[in-house]
Amino acid sequence: MVIDDSQTIRRTAETLLAREGYQVSTAQDGFEALAKIADDPPDLIFIDIMMPRLDGYQACALIKGNPRFAKTPVIMLSSKDGLFDRARGRIVGSDEYLTKPFTKDELLGAVRSHTARK
C-alpha cells in the first residue's frame, strides 16, 4: 500500500511496483488508508509523513498499535532527511525511512528487504 497526498508520488510508486509484479493499493491520507487496511491488510505500507487530517506519524502509530497489524512493515516517505524525522519515525514504529524523491532501486530494495513476494 502507498499512502501519500501527492497523486504523483502514489502513481509513480504504484507504477514501479506493479511493473515488478506487486499488487498495489493506494490511499491519499491516513484516514482512507486505515479503512482500506482494515478491509484488505497489505503486506507492506509506504506512508508519507506530511499529510492533511492524519499525518504519517499518527497513522503509523495507529497501525503499529493494533495487534492485527503490528508486524506489518511500515516505511516512512518524506522529503525531510533530518535525524529528528528519522528518530520520530522509529518512535512510532516505522521499519524504514525513504527520502523523496526515491529511486526505483530504493523503492524495490525496501520492498524486497521487508517482504517475500507472494
Task: Reconstruct the topology from this structure.
Layout: E1 2-3, H1 7-19, E2 26-27, H2 30-39, E3 45-48, H3 56-65, E4 74-78, H4 83-91, E5 96-99, H5 104-114
Parallel strand pairs: 1-2, 1-3, 3-4, 4-5
Helix pairs in contact: 2-3
Structural write-up:
The chain is α/β, with parallel strands linked by helices. 45% of the residues lie in helices and 14% in strands. It has helices spanning 7-19, 30-39, 56-65, 83-91, 104-114, and strands at 2-3, 26-27, 45-48, 74-78, 96-99. A five-stranded parallel sheet has the order 2-1-3-4-5, sandwiched between helices. α3 (56-65) links the parallel β3 (45-48) and β4 (74-78). α2 runs parallel beside α3 (56-65). The radius of gyration is 13 Å and the shape is globular. 28% of the residues are buried. Residues 1-115 form the Response regulatory domain. This is Response regulator. Keywords: Phosphoprotein, Two-component regulatory system. The modification 4-aspartylphosphate is found at residue 48.
